[in-house]
Design a protein that fits this description.
Layout (H helix, E strand, L loop, with lengths): L3 E5 L3 H13 L3 E5 L5 H16 L5 E4 L10 E4 L15 H18 L4 E4 L4 H12 L6 E3 L2 H16 L6 E2 L2 E2 L7 E2 L5 E2 L2 E2 L6 H12 L1 H9 L6 H15 L4 E10 L5 E12 L2 E5 L6 H24 L1
Parallel strand pairs: 1-2, 1-4, 2-3, 4-5, 5-6
Antiparallel strand pairs: 7-10, 8-9, 10-11, 12-13, 13-14
Length: 310
Amino acid sequence: MKHKVAVIGAGNVGASAALFIAERGLADVTLIDIVEGMPQGKALDTQQAEPLWHKGGRVEGANDLAAVKGADVVVMTAGFPRKPGMSRTDLLKANADIVRPAAEAVKQHAPNATVVVVTNPLDVMAWLFWKVSGFPKNRVLGMAGILDSARMRAFIAMELGVSGADVDAMVLGGHGDSMVPLPRFTTVGGIPITELMPADRVAAISDRTRNGGAEIVKLLKTGSAYYAPAMSAVEMVEAILTDQKRLVPCSVLLEGEYGLKNLFIGVPIVLGGRGVEKVIELRLSADELSALQKSGADVAASIAELAVAV
């Protein structure tokens, strides 16, 4: 039986994710959005491209959240995008009102699904989806570390004139200004980047990684990034559907690891068919651990702010 992936939100990120999933032939895709005709139109457009990929599969659109029924994986992308000058926390209350009914629908109609949350502010929305759905902690994840690490990989590849495929990077923490790039765990073809570029360039790339999303928002002026976020979510979908056991950074619920608990934040995990199969605790330096815990405090503050707003 072919897998089913439901993508909630047919905007740029959701539609791109649906396209990439269909193009890889990973699953049948249902694209869901409240805007009448939009998910149906984008789904039909994607379905008409399907014969050119020589891979079977159905892509359909729907306006009712009940269409998540039977999904093996749900990708949550619906929400208001960031605008220039807007922080992720500005989106908190508005996007919480979108995530709650989605989580309730998934709980009712796709109780065995694994959920990948992309909606910003990502770590808080992943926590909210987990809280509302009541799902076990291994089946709700936030897409953050893969995207942030991919951005760092791209910047390093551009700097050194090498293939991004040969760059491995590790970025932990909340998906925001306090994320924690870890140059010590970042390599090119197995060679530490500290051996390939001076310290000031490593620091500059780390800063650019922290501001990677804001840089695109500033350039686009009327929207935010979508190709790289969508592809990052699809990497997670593929790892889950094909039980790849990938060691990647994702936003997951911590219960004491790294001295953090009761919040979602980006840390290295083993990602496979059961979702979060293991949380990897790196031996961080005092400075690295302090930065991660500061990032955790920022996420915890946003969760507390959301709880007050309920």
